[in-house]
Amino acid sequence: MLRVHNTLSGKLEEFQPLQPGKVGMYVCGVTVYDRSHIGHARALVCFDVICRYLEFVGYDVKFVRNLTDVDDKIIKRAVERGVPAHQVSEENIAAFNEDMRVLGCKRPDLEPKATEHIDDMIGLIEELIEKELAYESSGDVYFAVDKLPDYGKLSHRRLEDMMAGARVEVDERKRHPMDFAMWKASKPDEPAWDSPWGKGRPGWHIECSAMSSKYLGQPFDIHGGGNDLVFPHHENEIAQSEGAKGAEFARYWLHNGMVNLGTEKMSKSAGNMMTIAACAEEYGGEALRYLVVGTHYRGPLDFSVDRLQEQKKGLDRIYENLARADEALAGRSAQAADEVRDQVVAAFREGMDEDFNTSKALAALHDGLRAMNRHIDAEEWPQATACRQAVAQIAGVLGVGAQSPADYIDAQKQQTISAGDLTADQIEALITERLEARKSKNFARADEIRDDLKAQGIILEDGPGGTTWKAT
Q1: Total structural domains in the chain?
Q2: Which pLDDT belongs to residue 442?
Q3: Where residue 334 sits, what CATH number does that domain have?
Q4: How far does the chain reach from its first CA to its final CA, in angstroms?
Q5: Using an 8 Å Cβ cutoff, are 399 and 45 in contact?
Q6: Are residues 424 and 461 in the same domain?
Q7: pLDDT tens string 108-158
Q8: 67 burial level (CB within 10 Å; 0-12, 13-18, 19+)
Q9: Could you give the count of Cα atoms lying within 13 Å of 148 in the half-sphere of its Cβ?
Q10: What is the Cβ-side half-sphere exposure of residue 223, based on CA atoms within 13 angstroms?
Q11: Using CA atoms, how far apart are residues 386 and 335, in angstroms rounded to an integer?
């Protein structure tokens, strides 16, 4: 039984979708004004794994994630660069797609852009005005928060407490200081669209209300995002959507924790962000993904370069174990021991059914690898085959260890060769020279070759089949 922590109730709840066998899931995407960073990677990987697991247990998932391609930050960046705002958006959407690829995240079923749904937003705003939950002021349109009695139910705040704890600037255009903009009157040289209130552009919150309900209906099953979005973004989405339709907006609200750098929260304002691209170039996108899935999605993720380096080494060991198994099982037609496979997969499902606990799921993967190696050592081929199959199933959900082991190891070798001074042929020649030195009992030369190669990121491994090498 899958149980999820619902931010709305603050409790673990049994997951029961509206339609048996089907799940509608909406996750807030990125604002495409710059390259995506590790904080984005956390949310992208977490909800990719959640989607994969729901599919793994048999649900037909419709996954929608938006792209915010009109926003103050995009306009500011366009002005700084002296280019149209749409150029900034398009360039960063292309970069975002590349970041998704290196992280191993599947594309959502739908990825709507804000600029392609202006009419939907205008229609939703008109509904709210008609119900006297919104009002126009000098070309802007605001949501009237004090007209909604349960405003604050997601963040578990009262409007009075929000006012007392916030420094709210006086704005004569608003009837209440906490009212938020759904439509903004255009300024010179800004992107603008026609509306009943004059030329302007949408506020941030309205796009998600409009697009989620358009593609998933209302209510839908899961709404997700980072916990920094609980207030005001998701709170305001609920206000708009439930105010307009008079019906529940989303049933389960899932929020991933933030990324910390030491004792400090990682953020652009603190100037301590690392982009996904920079991470992937140095350590590979899968190592970053491995780091993310090692922590429960709701908890804080402590990031450091040292931790990422350790994850890269751990990932290498996973693929080395898988490569060993593939070599040992090659050509064997042993029937898998179903009970062994089912036992490993059951441990994985037990972890994931506990609010998508990927740290426990990852432990099940490592247990499966250890069992696989034991069975290989004992030449118990049906059991080894079953463990290899179970690990492949788990890896397919977590997105860790799911590549071809041979391809992964070859890529690591090629990266080492490209970064160093030796070609593959030169490395093999040195391995041959070392073998000859050992045969002639010239152990000093053999050790020298081994140490020189190690200094260049090349580790030699001696085995029954001869000497092989791998990248550190």
Answers
A1: 2
A2: 87
A3: 1.20.120.640
A4: 41
A5: yes
A6: yes
A7: 999 999 999 999 999 999 999 999 999 999 999 999 999 999 999 999 998
A8: buried
A9: 28
A10: 29
A11: 8
> How far is it, in rounded angstroms, from Cα 421 to Cα 416?
9
Residue type, 128: L
pLDDT score at 167: 55
For residue 88, the tally of other CB atoms under 10 A from its CB is 24
Distance between CA atoms of 101 and 436, rounded to whole angstroms? 44
> How does pLDDT run across 239-253, given as a tens digit for each residue?
999 999 999 999 999
Q: How far apart are CA 88 and CA 82, in angstroms?
A: 10
Residues 322 and 394 in one domain: yes
| Ordered alpha helix ranges (H), 330-464 | 338-352, 358-377, 381-398, 405-419, 424-439, 443-455
Residue 40 in 3-state DSSP? helix
**Two structure tokens written together for 109:** 């079923």
Q: SS3 of 212, please?
A: helix
**Angle at CA 219, nearest 5°, toward 217 and 7?**
135
List residues bridging with 460 in a β-sheet: 469
- H or E element in which residue 380 lies: none
The range of the structural domain enclosing residue 389 comes to 318-403
Give the strands of the sheet with 134-137, arranged side by side.
134-137, 140-143, 180-185, 200-202
Question: Which two three-digit tokens encode residue 120?
Answer: 């939907």
- Closest Cα to residue 140, out of 189, 199, 190? 199
Phi-psi region of 364 (alpha: psi -120 to 50; beta: other; left: phi over 0): alpha
